[in-house]
Amino acid sequence: MGMLGIVIALFLAFLLIAFLAVGWIREVIRSKQIELKHSQDIKDQRADAVKRSRSVIEGQVAEQLVPHFPEWKYTPSEARFLASPLDYVIFEGLSNDEIKNIKFVEVKTGQSKSGKRQISARKAIEEGRVGYELLELDMNGKPVNQEEIEMWIDAAKNGKTISEVASEFNRSTATICKYVPSGIFGCRGGLRDSDKVVLSPSDAAYLAGIIDGEGSISLLKIVRNNKTFISPVITITNTDKKLVDWVVSVYPNGVWRVRQRDATHKLVNEWALNKISDVAHLLSQLLPYLTIKKDKAKIVLEFCEYRKNKRPYSDKEAEFFDAFKKL
Q1: Cα–Cα nearest to 66, from 109, 102, 122
Q2: What's the rounded Cα separation, in Å, for the pair 134 and 136?
Q3: Least enclosed by CB within 10 Å: which of 29, 177, 228, 312?
Protein backbone atom coordinates (compact mmCIF):
# COMPACT_ATOMS: atom_id res chain seq x y z
CA MET A 1 0.00 0.00 0.00
CA GLY A 2 1.44 3.36 -0.94
CA MET A 3 1.58 6.45 1.20
CA LEU A 4 -1.61 7.76 -0.37
CA GLY A 5 -3.48 4.62 0.61
CA ILE A 6 -2.26 4.86 4.19
CA VAL A 7 -3.36 8.49 4.39
CA ILE A 8 -6.80 7.64 2.99
CA ALA A 9 -7.18 4.75 5.43
CA LEU A 10 -6.22 6.94 8.37
CA PHE A 11 -8.63 9.62 7.18
CA LEU A 12 -11.47 7.14 6.90
CA ALA A 13 -10.65 5.75 10.33
CA PHE A 14 -10.69 9.27 11.73
CA LEU A 15 -14.09 9.93 10.14
CA LEU A 16 -15.46 6.69 11.59
CA ILE A 17 -14.15 7.52 15.07
CA ALA A 18 -15.51 11.05 14.78
CA PHE A 19 -18.89 9.73 13.67
CA LEU A 20 -19.01 7.26 16.56
CA ALA A 21 -17.91 9.92 19.02
CA VAL A 22 -20.61 12.32 17.86
CA GLY A 23 -23.24 9.59 18.17
CA TRP A 24 -22.06 8.71 21.67
CA ILE A 25 -22.07 12.39 22.69
CA ARG A 26 -25.60 12.76 21.31
CA GLU A 27 -26.74 9.65 23.22
CA VAL A 28 -25.20 10.96 26.44
CA ILE A 29 -26.90 14.32 25.96
CA ARG A 30 -30.24 12.61 25.16
CA SER A 31 -29.93 10.36 28.21
CA LYS A 32 -29.20 13.35 30.41
CA GLN A 33 -32.21 15.18 28.96
CA ILE A 34 -34.46 12.17 29.62
CA GLU A 35 -33.07 11.89 33.15
CA LEU A 36 -33.68 15.58 33.81
CA LYS A 37 -37.18 15.38 32.33
CA HIS A 38 -37.97 12.27 34.41
CA SER A 39 -36.68 14.00 37.51
CA GLN A 40 -38.84 17.03 36.76
CA ASP A 41 -41.87 14.82 36.05
CA ILE A 42 -41.41 13.15 39.43
CA LYS A 43 -41.23 16.55 41.12
CA ASP A 44 -44.34 17.71 39.24
CA GLN A 45 -46.23 14.50 40.08
CA ARG A 46 -45.25 14.76 43.74
CA ALA A 47 -46.36 18.37 43.82
CA ASP A 48 -49.64 17.43 42.13
CA ALA A 49 -50.15 14.49 44.52
CA VAL A 50 -49.54 16.74 47.51
CA LYS A 51 -51.95 19.28 46.07
CA ARG A 52 -54.59 16.62 45.42
CA SER A 53 -54.05 15.06 48.83
CA ARG A 54 -54.37 18.45 50.49
CA SER A 55 -57.54 19.08 48.53
CA VAL A 56 -58.98 15.68 49.51
CA ILE A 57 -58.06 16.16 53.17
CA GLU A 58 -59.51 19.67 53.16
CA GLY A 59 -62.67 18.30 51.57
CA GLN A 60 -62.95 15.47 54.11
CA VAL A 61 -62.38 17.86 57.00
CA ALA A 62 -64.94 20.25 55.57
CA GLU A 63 -67.44 17.41 55.10
CA GLN A 64 -67.13 16.39 58.75
CA LEU A 65 -67.53 19.99 59.88
CA VAL A 66 -70.54 20.63 57.64
CA PRO A 67 -73.13 20.01 60.42
CA HIS A 68 -71.72 23.10 62.13
CA PHE A 69 -71.90 25.33 59.02
CA PRO A 70 -74.71 27.90 58.71
CA GLU A 71 -75.92 26.17 55.51
CA TRP A 72 -76.68 22.97 57.48
CA LYS A 73 -80.42 22.77 58.22
CA TYR A 74 -80.51 19.61 60.34
CA THR A 75 -79.80 18.96 64.03
CA PRO A 76 -76.07 18.08 64.21
CA SER A 77 -76.58 15.33 66.82
CA GLU A 78 -79.00 13.55 64.47
CA ALA A 79 -76.40 13.28 61.67
CA ARG A 80 -74.12 10.28 61.16
CA PHE A 81 -71.05 10.59 58.90
CA LEU A 82 -70.75 7.82 56.27
CA ALA A 83 -68.03 9.28 53.98
CA SER A 84 -68.83 7.00 51.04
CA PRO A 85 -70.71 6.72 48.79
CA LEU A 86 -72.82 9.46 50.39
CA ASP A 87 -71.59 11.68 53.18
CA TYR A 88 -74.34 11.72 55.79
CA VAL A 89 -77.47 9.91 56.93
CA ILE A 90 -79.85 12.05 58.98
CA PHE A 91 -82.21 10.52 61.53
CA GLU A 92 -84.74 13.32 62.01
CA GLY A 93 -86.26 13.09 65.48
CA LEU A 94 -83.44 10.97 66.94
CA SER A 95 -82.75 13.52 69.68
CA ASN A 96 -86.34 13.01 70.87
CA ASP A 97 -86.12 9.19 70.61
CA GLU A 98 -88.73 9.18 67.83
CA ILE A 99 -87.32 9.01 64.30
CA LYS A 100 -89.77 10.57 61.84
CA ASN A 101 -87.66 10.71 58.68
CA ILE A 102 -84.37 9.31 57.39
CA LYS A 103 -82.47 11.30 54.77
CA PHE A 104 -79.17 10.89 52.96
CA VAL A 105 -77.04 13.98 52.30
CA GLU A 106 -74.21 14.37 49.80
CA VAL A 107 -71.79 17.26 50.45
CA LYS A 108 -69.92 19.00 47.62
CA THR A 109 -67.33 21.76 47.92
CA GLY A 110 -65.80 23.92 45.18
CA GLN A 111 -66.19 22.51 41.69
CA SER A 112 -66.45 18.84 42.73
CA LYS A 113 -69.06 16.74 40.98
CA SER A 114 -70.96 13.57 41.84
CA GLY A 115 -69.23 10.38 40.77
CA LYS A 116 -70.76 7.20 39.41
CA ARG A 117 -71.23 5.71 42.89
CA GLN A 118 -72.93 8.82 44.23
CA ILE A 119 -75.25 9.03 41.22
CA SER A 120 -76.26 5.35 41.52
CA ALA A 121 -76.84 5.73 45.28
CA ARG A 122 -79.00 8.80 44.74
CA LYS A 123 -81.00 7.00 42.06
CA ALA A 124 -81.61 3.99 44.33
CA ILE A 125 -82.92 6.31 47.06
CA GLU A 126 -85.12 8.32 44.71
CA GLU A 127 -86.64 5.13 43.26
CA GLY A 128 -87.41 3.77 46.71
CA ARG A 129 -84.96 0.87 46.53
CA VAL A 130 -84.17 1.29 50.22
CA GLY A 131 -84.88 -1.34 52.86
CA TYR A 132 -84.25 -2.44 56.41
CA GLU A 133 -82.75 -5.70 57.59
CA LEU A 134 -82.09 -6.97 61.10
CA LEU A 135 -79.03 -9.17 61.41
CA GLU A 136 -78.91 -11.09 64.67
CA LEU A 137 -75.56 -12.66 65.53
CA ASP A 138 -75.44 -15.77 67.68
CA MET A 139 -72.44 -15.31 69.98
CA ASN A 140 -72.86 -18.63 71.81
CA GLY A 141 -70.34 -20.39 69.57
CA LYS A 142 -71.72 -23.88 70.25
CA PRO A 143 -73.82 -25.98 67.87
CA VAL A 144 -77.50 -26.38 68.74
CA ASN A 145 -78.44 -29.84 70.03
CA GLN A 146 -81.76 -31.55 70.66
CA GLU A 147 -81.42 -31.26 74.44
CA GLU A 148 -81.16 -27.48 74.20
CA ILE A 149 -84.13 -27.31 71.82
CA GLU A 150 -86.24 -29.26 74.32
CA MET A 151 -85.17 -26.84 77.05
CA TRP A 152 -86.36 -23.95 74.86
CA ILE A 153 -89.74 -25.65 74.41
CA ASP A 154 -90.09 -26.27 78.15
CA ALA A 155 -89.32 -22.62 78.80
CA ALA A 156 -91.97 -21.61 76.26
CA LYS A 157 -94.54 -23.88 77.93
CA ASN A 158 -93.78 -22.06 81.18
CA GLY A 159 -94.79 -18.79 79.58
CA LYS A 160 -91.38 -17.29 78.80
CA THR A 161 -91.00 -14.97 75.82
CA ILE A 162 -88.56 -15.72 73.04
CA SER A 163 -86.45 -12.75 74.17
CA GLU A 164 -86.20 -14.17 77.67
CA VAL A 165 -85.18 -17.58 76.34
CA ALA A 166 -82.62 -16.01 73.99
CA SER A 167 -81.09 -14.11 76.90
CA GLU A 168 -81.06 -17.17 79.17
CA PHE A 169 -79.32 -19.42 76.64
CA ASN A 170 -77.15 -16.69 75.06
CA ARG A 171 -78.71 -17.29 71.64
CA SER A 172 -80.13 -14.95 69.04
CA THR A 173 -83.88 -15.13 68.46
CA ALA A 174 -83.12 -15.89 64.80
CA THR A 175 -81.22 -19.05 65.84
CA ILE A 176 -84.07 -20.18 68.08
CA CYS A 177 -86.63 -19.64 65.31
CA LYS A 178 -84.67 -21.99 63.03
CA TYR A 179 -85.53 -24.89 65.33
CA VAL A 180 -88.66 -23.81 67.24
CA PRO A 181 -91.74 -21.94 65.91
CA SER A 182 -91.82 -18.47 67.42
CA GLY A 183 -95.57 -18.81 68.05
CA ILE A 184 -95.06 -21.20 70.98
CA PHE A 185 -93.44 -18.44 73.04
CA GLY A 186 -95.25 -15.97 75.23
CA CYS A 187 -95.38 -12.29 74.35
CA ARG A 188 -95.34 -9.27 76.61
CA GLY A 189 -97.29 -6.10 75.94
CA GLY A 190 -98.41 -4.86 72.57
CA LEU A 191 -98.27 -1.82 70.33
CA ARG A 192 -98.13 1.55 72.10
CA ASP A 193 -100.53 3.24 69.69
CA SER A 194 -103.43 0.81 69.55
CA ASP A 195 -105.64 3.37 67.82
CA LYS A 196 -103.49 2.96 64.71
CA VAL A 197 -104.56 -0.69 64.31
CA VAL A 198 -107.59 -0.35 62.06
CA LEU A 199 -109.22 -3.55 60.83
CA SER A 200 -110.70 -3.89 57.39
CA PRO A 201 -114.45 -4.73 57.39
CA SER A 202 -113.73 -8.30 56.28
CA ASP A 203 -111.05 -8.83 58.96
CA ALA A 204 -113.30 -7.31 61.61
CA ALA A 205 -116.18 -9.60 60.61
CA TYR A 206 -113.94 -12.69 60.55
CA LEU A 207 -112.35 -11.84 63.94
CA ALA A 208 -115.78 -11.23 65.43
CA GLY A 209 -116.85 -14.68 64.20
CA ILE A 210 -113.78 -16.27 65.82
CA ILE A 211 -114.51 -14.56 69.15
CA ASP A 212 -118.18 -15.56 68.95
CA GLY A 213 -117.16 -19.19 68.47
CA GLU A 214 -113.69 -19.72 69.99
CA GLY A 215 -113.24 -16.72 72.27
CA SER A 216 -114.61 -14.93 75.28
CA ILE A 217 -115.33 -11.34 76.34
CA SER A 218 -115.30 -10.86 80.10
CA LEU A 219 -115.01 -8.58 83.09
CA LEU A 220 -112.81 -10.10 85.77
CA LYS A 221 -112.76 -9.19 89.45
CA ILE A 222 -109.20 -9.05 90.76
CA VAL A 223 -108.25 -8.65 94.42
CA ARG A 224 -104.82 -7.17 95.01
CA ASN A 225 -103.44 -5.81 98.30
CA ASN A 226 -106.93 -5.97 99.81
CA LYS A 227 -108.26 -3.83 96.97
CA THR A 228 -110.71 -5.00 94.32
CA PHE A 229 -110.23 -4.12 90.66
CA ILE A 230 -112.31 -4.89 87.59
CA SER A 231 -110.38 -5.79 84.44
CA PRO A 232 -111.71 -6.37 80.90
CA VAL A 233 -110.32 -9.24 78.88
CA ILE A 234 -110.80 -10.73 75.43
CA THR A 235 -109.37 -14.21 74.83
CA ILE A 236 -109.17 -16.65 71.94
CA THR A 237 -108.10 -20.25 72.62
CA ASN A 238 -107.53 -22.89 69.98
CA THR A 239 -105.26 -25.85 69.23
CA ASP A 240 -104.81 -24.60 65.66
CA LYS A 241 -101.79 -22.31 65.72
CA LYS A 242 -102.64 -20.89 62.29
CA LEU A 243 -105.81 -19.36 63.67
CA VAL A 244 -104.00 -17.52 66.48
CA ASP A 245 -101.23 -16.52 64.06
CA TRP A 246 -103.87 -14.88 61.87
CA VAL A 247 -105.36 -13.01 64.85
CA VAL A 248 -101.90 -11.72 65.80
CA SER A 249 -101.21 -10.70 62.20
CA VAL A 250 -104.30 -8.46 61.97
CA TYR A 251 -104.25 -7.19 65.57
CA PRO A 252 -100.70 -7.35 67.03
CA ASN A 253 -101.64 -5.98 70.45
CA GLY A 254 -102.16 -8.39 73.31
CA VAL A 255 -100.38 -11.39 74.76
CA TRP A 256 -100.15 -14.80 73.15
CA ARG A 257 -98.66 -17.98 74.55
CA VAL A 258 -98.82 -21.76 74.31
CA ARG A 259 -99.83 -24.01 77.18
CA GLN A 260 -100.32 -27.74 77.63
CA ARG A 261 -102.24 -29.47 80.41
CA ASP A 262 -100.01 -32.55 80.28
CA ALA A 263 -98.14 -34.75 77.81
CA THR A 264 -101.36 -36.49 76.72
CA HIS A 265 -103.02 -33.26 75.58
CA LYS A 266 -102.34 -31.07 72.57
CA LEU A 267 -100.64 -27.71 72.78
CA VAL A 268 -103.22 -24.94 73.22
CA ASN A 269 -102.62 -21.55 71.62
CA GLU A 270 -104.05 -18.64 73.58
CA TRP A 271 -104.30 -14.96 72.71
CA ALA A 272 -105.47 -12.40 75.27
CA LEU A 273 -106.13 -8.67 75.29
CA ASN A 274 -106.63 -6.91 78.62
CA LYS A 275 -105.40 -3.33 78.31
CA ILE A 276 -108.43 -1.06 78.69
CA SER A 277 -107.64 1.20 75.73
CA ASP A 278 -106.91 -1.81 73.49
CA VAL A 279 -110.08 -3.66 74.50
CA ALA A 280 -112.17 -0.55 73.89
CA HIS A 281 -110.58 0.11 70.51
CA LEU A 282 -111.00 -3.48 69.31
CA LEU A 283 -114.58 -3.89 70.56
CA SER A 284 -115.63 -0.63 68.91
CA GLN A 285 -114.58 -2.18 65.59
CA LEU A 286 -116.05 -5.64 66.23
CA LEU A 287 -119.38 -4.66 67.79
CA PRO A 288 -121.32 -4.36 64.47
CA TYR A 289 -120.27 -7.91 63.52
CA LEU A 290 -120.68 -9.73 66.86
CA THR A 291 -123.78 -11.89 67.38
CA ILE A 292 -123.59 -14.33 70.28
CA LYS A 293 -121.42 -12.17 72.52
CA LYS A 294 -122.71 -8.78 71.41
CA ASP A 295 -124.51 -7.95 74.69
CA LYS A 296 -121.39 -8.79 76.72
CA ALA A 297 -119.29 -6.70 74.36
CA LYS A 298 -121.56 -3.67 74.87
CA ILE A 299 -121.19 -3.78 78.68
CA VAL A 300 -117.42 -4.34 78.50
CA LEU A 301 -117.07 -1.50 75.99
CA GLU A 302 -119.09 0.86 78.23
CA PHE A 303 -116.90 -0.13 81.18
CA CYS A 304 -113.71 0.58 79.19
CA GLU A 305 -114.95 3.95 78.01
CA TYR A 306 -115.82 4.84 81.61
CA ARG A 307 -112.41 3.70 82.95
CA LYS A 308 -110.44 5.51 80.21
CA ASN A 309 -110.63 8.68 82.28
CA LYS A 310 -108.87 6.84 85.16
CA ARG A 311 -111.40 7.94 87.75
CA PRO A 312 -110.99 6.74 91.35
CA TYR A 313 -112.72 3.41 91.86
CA SER A 314 -116.33 3.68 93.08
CA ASP A 315 -119.53 1.63 93.12
CA LYS A 316 -119.89 2.30 89.39
CA GLU A 317 -117.34 -0.40 88.47
CA ALA A 318 -119.23 -2.93 90.61
CA GLU A 319 -122.43 -2.02 88.76
CA PHE A 320 -120.79 -2.83 85.43
CA PHE A 321 -119.54 -6.14 86.85
CA ASP A 322 -122.94 -7.09 88.28
CA ALA A 323 -124.69 -6.24 85.00
CA PHE A 324 -122.20 -8.40 83.13
CA LYS A 325 -122.69 -11.35 85.50
CA LYS A 326 -126.43 -11.29 84.92
CA LEU A 327 -126.02 -12.05 81.22
Answers
A1: 109
A2: 6
A3: 312
Q: What is the full DSSP assignment across 278-312?
A: HHHHHHHHHGGG-STTHHHHHHHHHHHHHHTT-PP
Cα-Cα end-to-end distance for the chain: 150
Q: How does pLDDT run across 3-61, given as a tens digit for each residue? A: 766 766 666 666 667 667 667 777 777 777 777 777 776 776 766 655 555 555 455 55
- Residues 168/156, Cβ–Cβ less than 8 Å: no
- Strand 215-224 with 227-238, pairing: antiparallel
- Is pLDDT of 199 > 70? yes
- Amino acid (1-letter code) at residue 225: N
The neighbour count for residue 121, using CB atoms within 10 Å, is 18
Strand, coil or helix: what is 258?
strand
In this structure, are residues 36 and 43 in contact, taking their beta carbons and an 8 Å threshold? Answer: no
For residue range 119-138, what is the model confidence (pLDDT) as tens digits?
998 999 998 898 888 777 77
Helices (H), the chain: 3-65, 116-126, 146-157, 162-169, 173-179, 201-214, 241-250, 276-286, 294-307, 315-325
184, 267 in Cβ contact below 8 A?
Answer: yes
